[in-house]
Amino acid sequence: MRYSHTLQQFSILSFFVTIWTVQSVPPQPPIRCDQTGCTVSNAYGTWPDRKTCHAANVTYPTTEEDLRKVVAYAAEHNLKVKTVTKFSHTIPKLACPSGSDALLISTSKYNSVIEIEPELLTVTADSGVSLRELIEKVEGAGFSIGTSPYWEGVSIGGLISTGSHGSSWSGRGGSVHDHVVGISLVVPANQSEGFAKVVRLEEGRDDTLLNAVKVSLGVLGVISKVKLSIEKAFKRSVTYNFTSDVALEDIFMEHGKKYEFGDITWYPSRKTAVYRYDIRAPVNVSGNGVNDFLGFQSNPILISKGVRALEKGFESSKNENGKCTTADTTLAYKKLIGNGLKNSGLIFTGYPVIGRQGKIQTSGSCLYSSSIRIDVACAWDPRYNGLFFYETTAIFPVSRFRDFLLDVKKLRDMKPERLCGIDIYNGIFIRFIKGSKAYLGQTEDSVVIDFNYYRADDELTPRLNQDVMEEMEQMAFVKHGAKPHWGKNRKVGFFGVKQKIGPNFDKFLEVKNKLDPKKMFSSEWSDEILLGTEASKYDGCALEGNCVCSEERHCNPSKGYFCKEGLVYTQARVCRFSPAQVIVM
Question: Locate the FAD-binding PCMH-type domain: which residues (predicted)?
Fold first, then answer.
């Protein structure tokens, strides 16, 4: 889930509303059922293919034995199964099962156990425990969790399944799965074993299996419990430096090495880089700061709708200047309020902001319900027609990242205005993660980028400057060999992923075939992501990132969008607006 989720073109008025409204309407549950069956969606209300995901039924286990019995029933009756968390923030369709009689297992009520072992510096939690619940329990006992994703609307089982991460090249690194020292997994079994069993894996004893299960995409079984390493409690000291992006390509590596939790937000159209100086501080240092990231705060529903309407207007009128003005305003506002950092109480008063690890490492105040107001929510809540966007997340080997930055700068310098569309969200967000032993993780120290951009209400509606976003996407995944984040990205980000993973992919498949030989937990959608296969192309398929265009019809010729080569990466094939060529259908 995600630091760069939301468009942040908020007015000063909305800032003061947010100060007094720190809670909101909670997100809707991802599973909804009626007499005809169930549907499951992600938190954005729309899957990448825009098709509804169906299942016959859902069950809500509360104990590990409940979980084992459910899997046993499904195995005995040859049912397809998918696990769904309380939050369902994964963008790809990994939670969608195959078959009209498929069963959903929700872990939303499997969240009662959190056990801390102080002498071993570990904590074990039921897989449905939310990240915030886990952090509060650990911090309350005088410890800290070394890393987490920046968005707290995730469960512990869900976040490790897709490789969620923070930012750090220090210690065990920024990926949460690399802090996992044990997992309990419920898998199908033969009749003599009761059709299902619990497999308990420990670091140093069961590494072959554990390295597969740490990042499993939910296709190996149902995670029951997760054991994480923890540390003695500590604080963090954070300062944002808003400055020029000159020499960013030469600075990023030293920045990642120097600051234990550092990151960089790059606004290429504004030629601005925001360096996060984020270091560990002793727990006895003064400071009770909080990270209440602007994009994850509760926002008045009318403002979210208005922001969406404004961006739709820019899109329909092809108003680059409007987007650039908004990007300027957004960036100035973030600088004014420290991007949501608060020294104490309700406001930001200056740097550094010092606070406990549990209050700095993650945020998501829009998740929590309020009896005070009912007209505020997370800005992307699909019930209110607010923000609607794509998210591209690419993981680069360190050695390949500098050249990517230089390519984007070349693309930017041709016409900076074309990149304002990502800068009104969160620009290009840069984080650092260590090499991992997880088979579906990164094999070497890496740099991760995220960027968000407008998604149209209709799948055949082209986007302003979409060719630039598509060229950046292909630069990352094709030219510079980046791997996709499993929980984000459009379908094109996964093409060829099997080859990028290399020998570890076959190791993962060996474990998959051992733990789930009948593919009970697989579906055509999870197979499509895991195998990185490209489906048949169709009219307009490139508009939503479901294919790379190779013919004009894969774009939208009737609206002036044709398949063209990239401007910098000429091997890219992108949908570009060419008004002189408009074809009337």
Answer: 51-233
